Amino acid sequence: MAFIDLFDPKGKRMLDYSFDRNGRDPEPGDCIALRDFSGVLPREAWSLDKERGKWQLVPYELQDGQKGRLLVVNDVAGDDGDRAVPAELELDPGLSGWYAVWVGIPNLDMKPIINTEALVDIALDGEPFSGLGPEFGRRHKKLMGPTGVEINCFWKCVKLDGRQIKLRVPFGTYLSQPWGLVRSILSSVQLVKVDETQAHEYIADISNPAHKKVLQYVDGFSHYWHAGKPGKGIDLRYAEKHGFSDHKILFLQTPSTGVANWPSEVTDYPGATFSEEEWKSMRRGDKRVYEYIRWASENGQEGMRVLSDACAKVGLEFHASLRMNLFWRTESIFGMSDKFLNGPWWFGHPEARKPGKAQIDYAHPAARRFVLDILSELAANYEVGGINLDFTRWPPIADPQRHDCSVLTSFIKEVRAELDRISQDKGKRLVLSATMVEGAHARDEDRRMMTLEDQRIDFEGWVASGALDFVCVQTWRHDRYIGTAHRHGVRYYCEYDNVPPETPGGREDTPEWCDQEDPVPGEELHEQPPIVSSVDPLEMYRAALKQLRAGADGVSFMNFAGRSMGRLGHLNEMEELAAAGKIWGQTIGEPIVLHESY
């Protein structure tokens, strides 16, 4: 039986949150349920009607007869977003011992429809928040999961011993699409008593290195754009979300090749070279990115620093990742000035670019030196376990018309030599990995899919070089590469992006996925922003489990960050869930009826 089955509130003896204890403690298996939130918030923090800056208290009833009053805020507040954020909810259950914590979140047809998962931020007092909410894919601009029901979302097992549980609007601020949307909803908090034996088994299980098969990338940009309010610990949430699970490594990426999200002597922050006049034409979220990164760096809170510390506390390795050739043309789909993400070095070295391309030329010494300097700065100045070279943004990284395979192979060896030098200074060996893609994002000028060979990537040469410790490959033919990597002692991870996981061409060749992928100027102001198709956890389970059974050492996820992936190291358990159509960490509860409009 999966551990989560032991913790599921369904079928447990239910005790009301305010039950008369009379010196009694709940028994293992009892569930303490909070369904009426009117008594746990100060009266000035909620209202029976929709009122800016307050939680709305709404009566509801489940199909099984349970009743309650949930909390909801759903306010497109625009520039008044800060004022629309309601007070944090602090629960002081007064309990001791171990409890499995579940949050009930109604999956309703809320308007506007947005691309987001977390509907509640949750934390123990004194610890960082992390996001929690139902996880379903989106297709044809609609949610793939059931609506009109309560979804019970598992957070984790915690030892309460008098500690408080805190809940708040996601990210501690407001979403950027549409601008100023403040949204959160919760219908219950359920605490299932866990006995000491179960608790110790749970800790041993989530700490078992044999299950650590999942890698996660954070792109170093989007989370600032959506919620980058200085002082809110935006980066920390990722360690909390993926720690104490089957996740092994968390990668934090740089926003692009030419700029930094840390105080750099090699380059500068996104948008740092803008004039006041240029800022007037930028998206509001872009300004938020710059303001957050600048504030974080000036206060010693940059992501590379805080995440390296946070990961160590929750059992994650932390690696820095660089997008190897991500520069922008002025007319890019983002509509932003190329100065925003290209950085000052780009404009000072036109000779180091590919002819006619918004990319650097890896055969040019100045381009190689620039990238080496960025990587060296990250490796030397931060407590990283390794450096990752991301060749998926945007291929081809080399120039297939002018370069042969030696250009990138020799560069990887140079990076390894640089890391070896820094490793000696640090007294520990730094890991080097590479992430690559064929098909999907990898297309030539005629939009034809490119293989690794087409991109002048010599896969066997790379893994045979001794430079790489592991590789992550996004492809439709993993069987071609797994054996090659293992023959040379290199670990192999199947790479998945937020595209159809088993379709060679990705979004572009899958009609139901052909929609806008990236935001454009002004979209954050739309009353209803475009709804982008996204992978459903069950689709990802089936694809990833197939490759894990075929011999892959693990899976890695780019732009797909659900906590539902954090159990993929337990193959038998996840195969059972996939066969049953169930998503790990969430159970479909009862249909719910709200008795007031929200």
What topology does this entry show?
Elements: H1 3-7, E1 14-16, E2 31-34, E3 46-47, E4 55-62, E5 67-76, H2 81-84, E6 89-91, E7 98-107, E8 120-124, E9 130-132, E10 138-139, E11 142-143, E12 149-159, E13 165-168, E14 181-186, E15 188-194, H3 196-207, E16 214-218, H4 222-227, H5 236-242, E17 247-253, H6 276-279, H7 284-298, H8 303-313, E18 317-323, H9 338-348, H10 365-381, E19 386-390, H11 406-426, E20 431-437, H12 459-464, E21 470-474, H13 479-487, E22 491-496, H14 537-549, E23 554-557, H15 571-580, E24 586-594
Parallel strand pairs: 1-2, 3-4, 16-17, 16-23, 17-18, 18-19, 19-20, 20-21, 21-22, 22-23
Antiparallel strand pairs: 2-15, 4-5, 4-24, 5-14, 6-13, 7-12, 7-15, 8-9, 8-13, 10-11, 12-24
Question: Summed up, what is this model?
Answer:
The protein has 598 residues and is of the alpha/beta class. Helices cover 25% and strands 23% of the residues.
What do you see in this structure?
The chain is of the alpha/beta class and 598 residues long. It has a domain at 3-202 and 588-594: Jelly Rolls, CATH 2.60.120. It has helices spanning 3-7, 81-84, 196-207, 222-227, 236-242, 276-279, 284-298, 303-313, 338-348, 365-381, 406-426, 459-464, 479-487, 537-549, 571-580, and strands at 14-16, 31-34, 46-47, 55-62, 67-76, 89-91, 98-107, 120-124, 130-132, 138-139, 142-143, 149-159, 165-168, 181-186, 188-194, 214-218, 247-253, 317-323, 386-390, 431-437, 470-474, 491-496, 554-557, 586-594. The two termini are 39 Å apart.
Terminal-residue CA separation: 39 Å
Which structural class should the secondary elements be placed in? alpha/beta
- Major beta-sheet overview: 10 strands, mixed
**With helices defined by DSSP (H or I, 4 residues minimum), what is the helix count?**
15
The rounded Rg comes to 24 Å
Number of DSSP strands? 24
